[in-house]
Amino acid sequence: MKYVRRLVWFIASRLLMFTIAVSVLLCAFFMCMNTANVYIVLSDGLQKRVDVILTREDAPELNNYFHPDFLSADPALIAAFGKDSPYVDYSITGFEHKLEIESLWAWPWDNYATCRVLERVPTITGKVLSSRKNEVEANIPPWQGGRYEVVLVKTSGKWKIIGMRQTSIIVEATPTPVPSVSPTPAG
Fold first, then answer.
1. Range of the domain at 53
2. Quick check: is 176 in a domain?
3. How far is 141 from 34, CA to CA, in rounded Å?
4. Residue 66 gets which letter from DSSP?
5. Which has the least CB within 10 A, 15, 77, 83, 93?
């Protein structure tokens, strides 16, 4: 009887350790999967948001990254399509979007994730609209980036940004034009 009890205890303890190991691996897998999905939604979604704000072009793709409640209440998007937009007098042809994710946490069993990100747009290229050349400055206004607390929610298997709260503001420096140096003729 003593040997049977030892055998049962040995099998039960190994089965318990195997179950714990598989549980930890599954938890880590789903956590990594959620983190990767949230990272993609953040980077692509916030870049598309900047694109819409700068170019003032309606983008139905924003619905892939943002919850409809957020889109209807986002003050930056509302201002972009209003008369007070600093970019209304410019034709934006390109920009450099930099996003640094400082913290990201998405439990595998939760339907929400919280993140802290740093968003910057150090370079904006474009020109003044021809109808406004004499009325506005030639330099495009700098982007007001910042640090944000972002909340995402998982609905129907897709992560979407449902809230952004700006915790600090970063105003990019306006680039100063660099004069070009022409070679002097040798004399």
1. 2-171
2. no
3. 37
4. B
5. 83
E-strand ranges in the chain read 90-105, 112-128, 144-155, 158-171
**Digit-coded pLDDT (tens) for 129-169:** 878 787 888 888 888 889 999 999 998 889 999 999 999 98
- Does residue 55 belong to any structural domain of this protein? yes
Report if residue 62 sits inside a domain: yes
User: 139 is written with which tokens?
Assistant: 């330099």
Give per-residue burial for 136-146: e unless 16+ CB within 10 Å, then b. Answer: eeeebbbbebb
Distance CA 151, CA 107 (A): 13
Residue 72 φ then ψ, to 5°: -75, -15
What CATH number does the domain containing 6 carry?
3.10.450.50
Q: Which of 6-10, 85-89, 98-102, 165-169 has the lowest mean pLDDT?
A: 85-89
State the total domains in the chain. 1
| Whole-prediction pTM | 0.80
